[in-house]
Design brief:
The chain has 2 domains: 129 residues, Rossmann fold, CATH 3.40.50; 101 residues, 2-Layer Sandwich (Dihydrodipicolinate Reductase, domain 2), CATH 3.30.360.10. The protein is 35% helix and 25% strand. The chain contains 7 helices and 11 strands. Helix 1 links the parallel strand 1 and strand 2. Helix 2 runs parallel beside helix 3.
């Protein structure tokens, strides 16, 4: 496969390593310094793009890939409020789009456990739920996309929660998400249910970016030859 990397920060460099390990070819590396080069990408020189740019550029980069008729795998966060309209555009125009807030296999197991646990905890309203995420100091968006995905999973399953708030819980219907930034932390997510009697937690701690990069490249392999909108649930089939 010929894969374009859009966004060449720490994640982009890790993705490049995995692309080479899996015997694919890097067709383009697009970053801030050469952003106009994205217009050179076409179906003859690139099979799929993997996009991990910043939150301010991600949405435009994704739509540009759609205009170029290039399948795109995105892991950028901070733009997710535009996800529904973006997915609709890909479906209407016959494009191929794969999005996940976290490409780690372990984190996606966490998403599944989170939903299952929330479904159980629906029967136990004495437990209050909150989420904590910790990331490196260079992560621009708060809270993380993974934390938001966890909150959405709880809201859809537990029944008594309707929204999340950052560093706050203004009502009984709100899930509080605490976002901390510390040096050299790839990503830690903890969901806590607490009652007057005890505390129940599920927790995922990434050791590095390699798991995310590996999952993104596998998603690119999965997307080849497909049309439509996909996510990790399609890839992993839990």
């Amino acid at each position: 496969m010929k894969i374009a990397i859009i966004g060449y920060g720490k994640m982009g460099k890790e993705i490049e390593k995995i692309i080479n390990e899996r015997k694919h070819t890097v067709s383009f590396i697009i970053d801030i310094q050469n952003q106009p080069d994205i217009n050179k990408i076409n179906s003859s020189n690139t099979d799929v793009a993997i996009e991990f740019s910043g939150p301010e550029a991600a949405h435009n980069n994704i739509l540009k890939c759609l205009d170029l008729n290039i399948p795109v795998v995105s892991g950028s966060t901070g733009w997710i409020d535009k996800y529904d309209e973006t997915a609709r555009s890909f479906k209407e125009k016959g494009g191929a789009f794969f999005y996940a807030s976290n490409y780690s296999i372990g984190a996606n197991i966490l998403f599944k456990l989170n939903r299952d646990l929330a479904h159980i905890m629906k029967m136990f309203p004495s437990y209050e739920v909150n989420i904590e995420e910790i990331h490196h100091t260079t992560k621009l968006d708060k809270p993380s996309g993974t934390a938001i995905s966890l909150a959405k999973g709880i809201i859809e399953e537990v029944g008594r929660k309707t929204k999340w708030e950052l560093d706050n819980s203004s009502s009984a219907e709100t899930i509080k998400i605490t976002a901390l930034r510390k040096e050299n932390v790839p990503g830690i997510h903890t969901v806590t249910y607490e009652s007057d009697i005890d505390i129940l937690q599920i927790h995922h701690s990434a050791k590095g970016r390699r798991g995310l990069a590996h999952g993104a490249v596998v998603a690119a392999e999965f997307l080849m030859g497909k049309k439509g909108v996909y996510g990790m649930h399609d890839l992993l089939k839990f």
